[in-house]
Amino acid sequence: MPCPTPKSLFFLLRHHRASSLLLFLSPRSTSTVAHNRHPCPPSSSDVDLLRKQEEQRQTLQNPYDLMKEDPIQVCSNLWVRCFGRPADAPPLPNLTGFLKKFDLWVLAYQRACAHHTGAFPPRGAIHLPHLRSLLALQLSVLASPRRPHPWGAATHLLLRSPTDPPSTRPISRRKFRALLDAAPPPFQDRVLQELLLLLLEPAFEPRFSPKSHAFRPGRSPHTALRTLRSHFAGYLWFLKADLSSVADGLGTDVILRCVERGVSDRKVLGLIKSALRTPVRAGCLPPDQEVDRLTKKRMKRKMLRKRRKKKVLNENDPKPDPYWLRTFFGFAPREATWVPNYGHCGILSPLLANVCLSELDYWMEERIAKYFRPSKLDSIWKESINDGSHNPAWPEFVPSSGNEKTRKMDYIRYGSHILIGIRGPREDAVELQKALIEFCEITYGLRLEKSEMEIEHITRGIEFLDHVICRRVIHPTLRYTATGGNIVSQKGVGTLLSITASLQQCIRKFRRLELVKGDKDPVPLPCTPMLYSGQAHTNSQMNKFLETMADWYKYADNRKKVVGFCAYVIRSSLAKLYAARYRLKSRAKVYKIASRDLSHPLRESTRNDAPEYSDLLRMGLVDAIDGVQFSHMSLIPSCDYTPFPRNWVPDHELVLREYIKLQDPKFFCELHKSIKQQELSSPQEDISKVVWDYKIFGIWSKSQRTTKEQGKLEEGANAC
Questions:
Q1: pLDDT in tens, 585-600
Q2: Is the pTM of this model over 0.85?
Q3: Within 13 A of 296's CA, how many CA atoms are on the CB side?
């Protein structure tokens, strides 16, 4: 092969030294140039490759020129496009065009920075080197499919976190390998996951069933509890199943097969496939590793010492969550603690789990429609499957009618936990249990064990999302107007669906957080994590926690009782803490000085020369002390019994549907024609009339308008 001239070699070497991004864009060629000790210079193919890389480097010099669109508007258009497609539309074909929009990459970078640093950086505050690295990552992802994205890479990173400090200190090979093994997921993977989530979430949201409430925008455990209260009255048998083992064991082929039903873009499917199949580095201690009792005890002591030790954060370290938020996270129900994790998908895993489990939602909707058999002898669901509005203002009450003749079933799913209500015999629940096991084997290739499913009667109480679903018989007084205008009062009998918060679960969570001891008669313990905080800061933290707990138990019948118990535990725990901090002997002395809600200041000493708290507060040297909330039962809000609409959809979906309707020219013309036929005026016309009146007369002559309209009506009547 002929060798290039010295002039061309000098050109190559000069541009090779000037380009710092060649090491990232083409590892093969750069390693060949840097480490090749063969006396023959590079070939003509290497020259062409270096020229292409030089062109790519020139495009990387001005990433601001690529930021032309508003990424929020691009995402909004994608949501409108996906919700405007029919239900039986083919999979979304082209998403690679969105991957080529650099504005979406910048938005994904901003979201990833907000997760790592706790602050959402503006677009203008992103430095040019970070934008160039982000553009290099985009070109690497959009490269040929033969070179997939290196998920989980620990070295040769194209994009680093803004909080990563530069490492210039030499370390040994053993420490370097240990750092690589214990390295967290790279920042560039988080950016790519955010971008894929921005593209895939609007593609699958219109396809999801309204019966799933986890990992979806606009839906939460509260919507699931409100659905249970409004739609599950009248069911006798409940089938509860935990599909965590099935959802965690989903194979790559199963996930890709489910994703291909909604998205057919090869580039996106290739990225998901490589993220699922790339092996994940094992950490220092796998979660499934068995540890003996002595090791557990030593680890607990070590964690206690580390917790009590005061930690000083570095300049770039993100601040940890406040204590009240960490305490509230400890009250998460078992159904909400399950978060899937598939390979290197990261935050994309919950969406993939919903995509796979939506097959179960479709199957259950078909079985619900087939199982329904109405009976006019029953009190509810006499004719239609949607005839659940027997009393819209009191949907949880069902009047008694002897034997229940109607056969009906309903279903709800939160994450990997499902709850099925059946109005029928127990044999139907057993048959559905067998069919569910068979469905999981056929669809997911995994067997669901019977130990993970329970069939319970409503009188036994069913626990779901740390709330107990039960039924009680009541005798309300029904008042109605009879013929002749007489008001009749009659005693009725029926069943009332009750959803109460589980007090035992609440005690168990407090005991796990080491705020109480004992089970049947719990005794509060001092809140030691707030030992070094002042009284004002401690009270404010606990007030935020109590407000959040009151909002969490918003739809529980025993809201006052549970929130009152939480307030008693927190208030007693703080009283014990203050008794130890201010050297008081008992809680009684603390309550005597600081009052029942702990709002009065406590002093560390009883010296007469110490300044008064009121003087310090007036000078701004101390913070105002807020009393601990809910010190009396009358201060606790009652349960929210607002009825939940049967065909409820989140606000953003409602706005999208209305916007898509208005974008249809046919619907808009019909709407405009109906306004003209009914002689109605649009808001724009009313505003223009008001502006014209103010411009001509200086005041809006409403009476003049009414007289003119009356005159027109009289003329029309005379003409007739």
A1: 889 999 999 999 998 8
A2: no
A3: 5
